[in-house]
Amino acid sequence: MCVKEQEARPNFRMLFCFFKREIPVKKFLLSLLLVPNLVLAVTKLPLEKLTLPKGFSISVFAEIPHARSLAQTEDGRVFVGTREGDKVYIIQNGKVSVFAEGLSVPNGVAYRNGKLYVAEIPRIYEFDVPAKVTKPLKPTRTLSQIFPSDAHHGWKFIRFGPDGKLYVPVGANCNICEAGTEYARIYRIDVNGTSKELVAQGVRNTVGFDWDPVSKDFWFTDNGRDMLGEDVPPDEVNHLTKLGQHFGFPYCHGKNILDPEFGKGKDCANYTPPVVELRAHVASLGMRFYTGSMFPKEYQNNIILAEHGSWNRTIPQGYRLTFVQLKNGQPVKVEGFVEGWLQNGEAWGRPVDVEVMKDGSLLVSDDKAGIIYRITYKAPGK
Ligand SMILES: [Ca+2]
């Protein structure tokens, strides 16, 4: 049977689940023999199940197994990190190539000034990026800053801030615990030096962040703890207003939920609350401020984030893109933007990260279907 989505490696059962409505099993097995690259088989996706606001369209941009974090060069080439595989991919001239391989949990990718930075769990590699990548490349060096090697929430999302520093989170190495001093934090580092500064603490596990294009303030998603209840605590969108702020974990969840164990004797008023409380367990990951001009005005300079989807909630939720419209730093609208990866309690896709392209279209990675989607907008009637 098809099981509910889990934080597990994609396996053959999941592939069967995915394909069962699309092609007969016999034909699928035959395709495995004939097509060694499974990705090639993922060509018939139920894209018609996805719903978008009027005027928006979604299409397949690229097929990449386990696609996770996205980054791009000045000339619009796209890097794709993976958590399950050992590879980082590059999409150039519409074609997918392996950029680097033999890596361990290379979830994080960040590009700046002709160099790509790839984060494994404890370390970050620097690669030179040639004008055209023709074969898998080796890193030119490893950055001097080293992070804990714990696998639990160890995979990294990394990104350069407007300050030129590389922002690197270290998730809590547990579901809920009094994490050690290096954990549940976001750091920023100088990739050409040795500095490592604290940006935020009390952050359970952020896998996506961006900077407000106007104020340059830092915003990030955070995933709430498990095993507190089906509907608590909320996932979060947070706004840093002061370096080193504490965002509550493990003492206080959401705006005002004291942890039954670790919250004893604590007061939520002593921690920075989220700006947006998302639904519980939706697994909010990648987020970007939409900085293009293709989408309507209400989207511009506001947030689109990916909800990867719950893994242990009785009735799964998430599995969608969410739009957060802000006014003076406060949400005035939080609503589904793209929905339909979850059908009758089963997910055929899981959005992970988003990336605004130069032409204003939006890329979305999906590590379950192994797809990069492209969302475009055309005013109805035009
Ligand atoms: Ca929090």
How would you describe this protein?
5% of the residues lie in helices and 37% in strands. Among the domains are: 1-44, no CATH class; 48-66 and 285-382, no CATH class. It contains two helices and 29 strands. Strands 10-11-12-13-17 form a five-stranded mixed sheet, with no helix packed on it. Strands 1-29-28-27 form a four-stranded antiparallel sheet, with no helix packed on it. It is mainly beta. Calcium ion (CA) binds next to loops.
In short:
With 382 residues, the protein is mostly beta strands. 5% of the residues lie in helices and 37% in strands.
- Share of helix among residues? under 10%
**Rounded average pLDDT:** 91
User: Total number of helical segments?
Assistant: 2
How much beta, percentage-wise? 35-45%
The whole-angstrom Rg is 20 Å
Classification by helices and strands: mainly beta
Q: What's the arrangement of strands in the largest beta sheet?
A: 10-11-12-13-17
Bound molecules: calcium ion
Query: What best-fitting shape do the alpha-carbon axes yield?
Result: globular
Most strands sheet: 5 strands, mixed
Enumerate the spans where pLDDT stays under 50 for 5 or more consecutive residues. Answer: 1-41
Terminal CA distance: 45 Å
